[in-house]
Design goal:
The chain is α/β, with parallel strands linked by helices. 48% of the residues lie in helices and 17% in strands. Helix 1 runs antiparallel to helix 2 and helix 2 packs antiparallel against helix 3. It is extended and about 75 Å long.
Length: 440
Amino acid sequence: RCAAPCTGAISLPDYAALVDQAEDFLRGRSRAVMTRLSDEMQAASDDLEFERAARLRDRIRALSAVSQETLVNPESLEEADVFALHSDGGQACVQVFFFRAGQNWGNRAYFPRIDRSDEDPAILAAFIGQFYDDRPIPKLILVSCEPDDRDLLAEAFSLKSGRRVEIRRPERGEKRSLVDEALTNAREALGRRLAEGSAQSRLLAGVAESFGLDAPPERIEVYDNSHIMGTHAVGGMIVAGPDGFQKAQYRKFNIRSADLTPGDDYGMMREVLRRRFGRLVREGGSGETTVRPDLVLIDGGAGQLAAALEVLTELGVDDIPVVGVAKGPDRDAGLERFFLPDKPPFMLEPKSPVLYFLQRLRDEAHRYAIGSHRARRAADMKRNPLDEIDGIGPARKRALLHAFGSAAGVARASADDLEKVEGVSRPLAERIFAAFHKER
């Protein structure tokens, strides 16, 4: 936590000492830091500064808990990454441990897409080969199984990093224990993922039953709009399926139609769906961005559903199930009503797992649309007013900002002062002056 030197809560020398301690700790010199703190604690106690001594005691305990030497903080490992692969049921998990400065800097589980016919050495080779595309490569890479083309990978990594890199599958000792620990983590992480996938399958089957679908949907697309009084309007599309949210396939749509009445939610939804499914029709569903969904959820009631069906019918893709999800009174979760074509609206049981799942989908679509709207609004707020004036390109813009310091400085300048800037003619100076003073 920050000791707040900017407000004078700590002196600059004392703050510098904290920075030095942090640096020592991150470089692996945790014992020296704790020894120094222990000496300070004893001195504070001798001076009867018991509160300060207690704070130092708590800090020593915390540092000791973080840096304690256990199985995952080995003495013999200065810098290495540990990769352990476990595959089952056509899925795989690669658990990676990171060691730097003799300390465990954390671990993370990855779930690469594989084919059921892929063997573990090929999976691990492909994963490690891509893993270091944008990461620094350590001197030692420990693996649970020997990857295909191990020597070729090691040579490529050595060339890239400018030093010798070794890929090794340890057979015994402390390093083998580390790999076994990572392998246990990989096995448990994949087990949890497979269990979650089974639960996800049951939820998708429940969705199919609730909406009368022929089969559980593999791809659900959810749409929502966001704007403030019609300005900076954005439509958002999220995608979900058996593997959960597919965030790489999310899409935002900046509302572009000049014919829309500000705040026309139905018109916005028509534009979003026309652009999304118009592209699907043109490209025939080839590619991830144009694949056909099995179910479309629209944030809204009967009106939004009618607008969506109108567009899909117009485009000739009226065989895709569409459901409107209307918020309950006062936007209460659990009181949502669902609208299907040619059927009366209905509600699901308040404690139904399927209802919770659909709420999560709708909330994720709302979050994504709101975030996209805020990003667009922030970008517009940051846009320089000079960008809107004809005749000002990057060079003249740079010259004006250099001369007057900012766009506000340009706005305060007279036409005569503007004309003195290199590249600004008298007509352009008058045009710039008029652009900033037209309201006056």
